Amino acid sequence: MTYASLPVFTIFAERNELAESRGIHAYASYRELLNDESVELITVAIPNDSHEQVVIDALKAGKNVICEKPVTMTLESLDRMIAAAEANGVRFSTHQNRRWDVDFLAMKQIHDSGEIGKVLNIESRVHGSRGIPSDWRGEKAHGGGMMYDWGIHLIDQILMILGWDVKSVYCVCDHITNQEVDDGFRLEMIFKSGQRAHVELGTYNFIAMPRFYMRAEKGTALITDWKEETLVVKCNHWHENDVLPVKTAAGLTKTMAPRDEVTTETYRVAKPASDVHDYYRHFVNAIRTGGEQDVTYEQMRTDLKIILAAFESAETGMPVEIK
Fold this sequence. Notes:
With 323 residues, the protein is of the alpha+beta class. The chain folds into 2 domains: 3-97 and 278-293, Rossmann fold, CATH 3.40.50.720; 101-275 and 304-321, Dihydrodipicolinate Reductase, domain 2 (2-Layer Sandwich), CATH 3.30.360. The chain contains 8 helices and 14 strands. It has helices spanning 13-21, 30-35, 51-60, 75-87, 102-113, 146-162, 278-289, 297-316, and strands spanning 41-44, 64-67, 92-94, 119-127, 166-174, 184-191, 196-202, 212-216, 219-223, 230-235, 246-248, 251-253, 264-269, 320-321. A 9-stranded mixed beta sheet has the order 13-10-9-8-4-7-6-5-14. A 3-stranded parallel beta sheet has the order 1-2-3, covered by helices on one side. A two-stranded antiparallel sheet has the order 11-12. Strand 6 (184-191) and strand 7 form a beta hairpin. Helix 4 runs antiparallel to helix 8 (297-316) and helix 5 packs parallel to helix 6 (146-162). It is elongated and about 80 Å long. 29% of the residues are buried.
């Protein structure tokens, strides 16, 4: 069976008919899908508020499940899904496919290598200018908003780089094109290590800020756009014998004088090789071998904890501790 011929099911009859017209089998009912013993894995891609029951039904039917992000909107709901997977001896994962984004992988590579020392803080931004989608993603009842849509990916990426021990968060949400759900946000994350992260998503930015900015003890790394290689400036020598001052609007300054090639080294890091299909390959391998899956249950819980704390912070205007 090829990927193109994998069977599907949707509640929209016209879409099922379209699939059949293209040689793709469409199940006549949800129950028919669950009763098909040849199906080992189901992917769930429906509005966020509908995930839980569909996921649990599939798990109880003995199917492994990949659910679109965010997997759900409460920890209690997520725990019920995890319990159903464990009770029925099957696997359950959420679709964190952006762990294979080359810009994120480049930042993780620099962090893990230690080449510019301990990382002090990371800034991660995605900016667009077309507002929030006009479908259910713009409706609160269905779990809409950009924190759930993109934020879950950007938060997960930061945790994959800096670790999973977040101490507290502070968040401000935008409501520029949509008053019902957030159409952007700015999230500050403080880690128990003292490291910090700034995660920002905007849908009303006509000039985009850099995709990633990393500041470390021995240098700085920058990715202006996900298509670009990483620029690194590494500080090899801290002191200079004679710093030439630079002229600013308010006068001369040595403090803000730029570095030169004597004390710094500038270079680019090539984009890492990546294949997003490895998300699926690894999950299937975990099913086959019984090994650990890439997106663990505890990681799923931590991602969701941070999002829920971010919403609480945005509502109260105060930082929120992660427990």
